[in-house]
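Journal club prep — side note

Before the paper discussion, L.F. wants everyone to see what a predicted structure for a comparable chain looks like in token form. Sequence:
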Amino acid sequence: MVGQAIRYLLVGYGDQSNNPQREVYDIVGDNVFPNVLPQNYGLPAIVYTITNITPSNIKSLRALGNSIDIEIDVIADSYAQMAKISNLIINNLHRYINSYNSNDSDSIGYDNPLYTGTPPAHGRYGNYAPACTGPIQYVAGLQIVDLFFQNSFESFDDVLENYRNTINFKLTYINDIANWGADFYLKLDDLNLMATTSSGGNPLYDQPISINDGVNYIWSPCVYSDSDNVEYLTATLSLNNEYAVFNDATGTSNTNRPILKESSLNPPKFNKLNYLEFGSSKFLTPVNSSLGFNRTYKELTFFCVITLPDSHAAEKGASILFKDSATSLPAGGIGVQSDIIGSDVFYKFFFTAKEDDGAGGESEKSGTLLSVQSSTGTNPDLRFAEPVFFAFNISRTSTTKLEGFTDLVTSSYRTKNWAGTNLRFNTFEATASTTWSEYFMNFGTIHSNRTSYDTNGAGTINLNDELHIYDLVLVPKKIPFGSAEYNEIKNNILEKHKLSNTYKPN
């Protein structure tokens, strides 16, 4: 990701007329390489090398970061050309401001589909780019805090007869979940990643927003992956490193939008963090309405921190990722549900995946990921009305079987496994009546407005009850539970929510 970001810092998005780095690209073209200049490539060219990575505390943002030294070699046949490219790079990168992602209506980074003026809405790096005019500059999914020119050194190669300028920069970026290859990540502490409707102006939406504002747009700081675990059903809808963005498709009527809230659950038990309050029937859809159904997964790992208000008081069901009632296309889904049986309350996490319907098409079938029980005598303090961490991974292990692991941390979690064993993680297995699709999961919305949904195997449930989302991360691969990568993401989330003090790993 860092290397990808450096490349686009240097030459931007090709020959697009609104490319801020167009002057460099017009001279160098695609001759930009990591570490070494390949043989048989013409000049001029740029070679970049990361020479040092050191941890960095970013006090102003209360964030952990990395500072890296970047060595950029500009190589050309003439001194004049080398000098010109070098000056352009220094001027463009020193104290970098990402004009790709500006929310200014006169800039190119704000991709509002309702904005029809000049510049055009598409055709540049990072389509649907995050709205960032704050302290963080988003480039290729990298969250840049600062970028400074340090020094340069010119030389001449007597053997190859070319001129070289070695330019050194210091780059500091946020070290968080976005760097682990997630497809999307709801980063609710950055108010520049959300937009609310305004009474006027152009573009139609304003950011940054404030606490208690309605969220009409929400961007992910992550760039969509082109992983082999992802397939596009329609080639024309394939992505070119776009940022995920969801919106309220009703526009200024604000019919579907959630509200950005600040948690009232204060330390020492929980951190005071932002969350999205999805009221009944509130949901967000991908800006490209077809994109959620077009992008399908054959394996994934999912993380969330959610609350289901009043889950212990009445029967509740709410989706996290699903689809709206107006869409008939088959879809995958992830949800949470409470079910009261006598004096016992059962909390269930479930999924919905696509299977062959036996007639040349696809249907939806649901399965249980995890079910836990609360009663007067069992886990009396377990409540989904307080933040709950849940994660699962999933893959198709045969044509009729989906398998994976689940992980649950609640405010009352200690050392036990909710399945009643001493295992660290729960396993689950789901079988299809015919055949699970190879790419069995896709997502149409965040939350849902479906009041009655036939799960084709798990009964009819309601998906539109109130749901609060604190964190939501989707990685397009099956991360082994207990691995260093999994633990890094999990611990990052638990520490953020002060949930790490509520459990002890087995």
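L.F.'s comment for the group: The longest strand covers residues 142-157. Keep this in mind when we get to the figures.
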